[in-house]
Amino acid sequence: MPTQEELVREIRRVKRWAIGATIGVMVLAVVAFAPRQDGRFDELTVHRLNVVEPDGQPTLVLANSQRIPPVTCEGKAYVQTRKGAGGMIFFDGHGTEVGGMIFGLSEGEDGGYSASRHLSFDRQFDDQTIVLSQSEDADGMTKALRFVDRTADIEGCQFIETASRLREGDSAQQAAARRWFEEHYRGGKEVANRVVLGVDHRNAVLVLAGTDGRPRIRMVVDSASAARLEFLDADGRVVESLPGDGR
Fold first, then answer.
1. pLDDT band at residue 13 using 50, 70 and 90 as cut-offs
2. Half-sphere exposure (CA, 13 Å, Cβ side) for 237?
3. Cα–Cα dist 115/90, whole Å
4. 10 Å Cβ neighbour count for 20?
5. Which of 39, 157, 36 shows the shortest CA–CA distance to 98?
6. Contacting residues for 101 by C-beta, under 8 A, at least 6 apart
7. What span, in angstroms and rounded, lies between the C-alpha atoms of 162 and 152?
8. Domain spans of the chain?
9. pLDDT in tens, 54-112
10. Taking the complete model, does pTM exceed 0.90, yes or no?
11. What's the gap between Cα 37 and its chain centre?
């Protein structure tokens, strides 16, 4: 049986070991969580990556299909319009979405699918003004670059709030939202696809439209490689075509 003096020495040794182990753990923790000066990693796997300003407001969010942010304006989240798609969302640094890059795939029970790829830039507090997109399904593939005029007088998050009520509101809210859109957009011709360049089911098309969105010049090279240039009036009628009927 150890003497009292031996017990005291053993207790002191255990204390020293405990203190040393604690200090070692603290040093390891500091080293492990200290920021690296070079900021380099061999590989990084995440479900969502947020790039933020010093005040915490996002400038970019990279996320999978389950963590993609909903439509956001001035820091408030509205309706989720990107279900089933992952990608990258751009923000203005003040809590408002200003564009994004989205990739999605929907598979049907019959084995079919619908795929889309989309890059867009938004007008402040409004919707898309430059859109690069590609979509495909069992019927074929469409690729297009669009430049869109948006000239409605929008105050703050009014457009996004109204679009959210149109999607998720009750019947009275949806009716009011439809009236607002009719007044500010469709009725006022405040949205117009001014330039559309794309390939639709193997037809290469360039369309130039007026401020009302109606096509006025259409250039086509169809799937049989036949080319034509058409000039249209305000009602969409072809008033001149090259080559003409006497080609």
1. low
2. 2
3. 22
4. 10
5. 157
6. 87, 88, 118, 119, 120
7. 14
8. 1-35, 44-124+133-138
9. 999 999 999 999 999 999 999 999 988 888 899 999 999 999 999 999 999 888 778 78
10. no
11. 32
